[in-house]
Design a protein that fits this description.
202 residues, alpha/beta, 3-stranded parallel sheet, 6 helices
Length: 202
Amino acid sequence: MEEHTMGYKTYKIQKGGAGTFYPFVFNDIMGIEKDTNGGVRVDDINLAMKGHIKDGYNFNPRIKISEDDRSYNRTPTLNDRAHVLVCVVSASTVNILSDESVRKMRDVRLAARDLGIPQLAILTKIDEACPEVKKDVKNVYKSKYLKEKMEELSVSLGLPLNCIFPVKSYHSEIDTDDDIDTLISSAMKNIIHYGEDFVNSL
């Protein structure tokens, strides 16, 4: 899983004027690496989903966070807890995910399941993985190659295909693109929908 975040970071999306935000946040966690002692620990992710880890905490791949750590939240509220788990995987690396990475990702997904948290996946960099999509992003659901990648990810993580969303990220574009935005918007709407369902079921 390709990831460069080293800490636990919360992102808000501004709505309208300064200081006004949408009523949801995204929490970003450093990636799961292929080595047993690399990347974020599965038990730390589990604690983050339960709301025990505060914004700004820097993960230590070798040591689980201590309850005595100042970044440990002893009394998490509903707002501190995860309402949906989203796994982000590059389309160009699905077929080379190590067994250890897949095991960690499945362990996290199963922990989320046990907590009643819905699980989704985002397949990124679809344009880099598929020439047809690079030529025209509207070909995303016509691409046999991407269909195979989504099926591989579905089998690896144990997620149904309708919970995996292909997305093309902005990287060199100067202006916004309606076709790129459509894919991003679809993924976002589903993330919010699943998160709302989780909260409403409590």
